[in-house]
Amino acid sequence: MDQERLFATLGKQKKAILFDLLQDAYEAMNTEQRRHVFGEFAEQELQSANINGRELLDRIQHFHRDSLNGVYYAPSISTPKISGISRKRLRNGSTFWEIV
Fold first, then answer.
1. What are the residues whose beta carbons fall under 8 Å from the beta carbon of 73, sequence distance 6 or more?
2. Is the model's pTM score more than 0.85?
3. Strand runs labelled E in the chain
4. Residue of 28, 22, 23, 24 whose CA lies nearest to 10
């Protein structure tokens, strides 16, 4: 492949075409190649991220409380309405569900 001709042709392309080509190139690369070519841009993005630690912690704690309260989970299913599943209790007191 002739590098000069390639880049002369690329220089005439629209940004959208170049961006698509860049995405295809990224997909064709392994992790080491991606870091070599794009690493500087990824680091710039991380450095420019303005993270408020207090706000982030508050959001995490809010999620944790909601999660413990079942906000993100479907309502419990009444087992008698489900055929083919039975609840089993082991001698040690633990419970598991068995598909029959």
1. none
2. no
3. 85-89, 95-99
4. 22
Residue of 48, 46, 20, 25 whose CA lies nearest to 37: 25
d(CA 98, CA 85) in angstroms, rounded, equals 6
What is the bridge-based pairing of β-strands 95-99 and 85-89? antiparallel
Per-residue pLDDT of the chain (100 residues; tens, 9 = 90+): 899 999 999 999 999 999 999 999 999 999 999 989 988 887 766 666 677 888 889 999 999 998 888 888 776 655 555 556 667 777 777 776 666 6
Asked if 96 and 90 touch (Cβ cutoff 8 Å), the reply is yes
> Contact 7/21 with Cβ under 8 angstroms?
no
Residues in the chain: 100
